[in-house]
Amino acid sequence: MPPEDQALAIGSEARRFVRAYHNGSLCTLSKKLEGYPFASVSPFVLDDRGNPLILISNLAEHTKNIDADSRAGPCQPSI
Q1: CA distance between the termini of the chain
Q2: Where are the domains of the chain?
Q3: What is the pLDDT of residues 15-44, one digit of tens each?
Q4: What is the mean predicted confidence (pLDDT) over 49-59?
Q5: In whole angstroms, what separates CA 45 from the centre of its chain?
Q6: Which fold, 3-77?
Q7: What is the C-alpha to C-alpha distance for residues 14 and 19, in angstroms, rounded to an integer?
Q8: CA–CA gap between residue 46 and residue 61 (Å, rounded)
């Protein structure tokens, strides 16, 4: 299989995998313990382009962390 086709197949497989789950780990940098990761299970949905949408409360630790440092990202979906 040509590299371009292989890349498309891997991307398609990754999208199917993510669409199969509705929970994953949201990771932020801890505000309380500077420089340490803070991760917890967080529900998400995908928009029509496949981007994850996460709704978190203003009271959540993740929100406080993101307000202090916007670097955040998903880890693997929780299985």
Answers
A1: 30
A2: 3-77
A3: 888 888 888 889 999 999 988 999 988 888
A4: 87
A5: 10
A6: Pnp Oxidase; Chain A (2.30.110)
A7: 9
A8: 23
Longest dimension (CA), the chain: 49
Q: What is the pLDDT of residues 62-73, one digit of tens each?
A: 999 999 999 998
Residue 21: name the closest of 45, 48, 53, 47 by CA: 45
Q: Which two structure tokens, joined as six digits, stand for 78? A: 């929780």
Residue with the larger pLDDT of the pair 66 and 14: 66
| 47 φ, ψ (degrees, to nearest 5) | -80, -175
Q: What kind and span of H or E run contains 13? A: helix 3-19
pTM of the model: 0.68
- Return the amino acid letter for 14: A
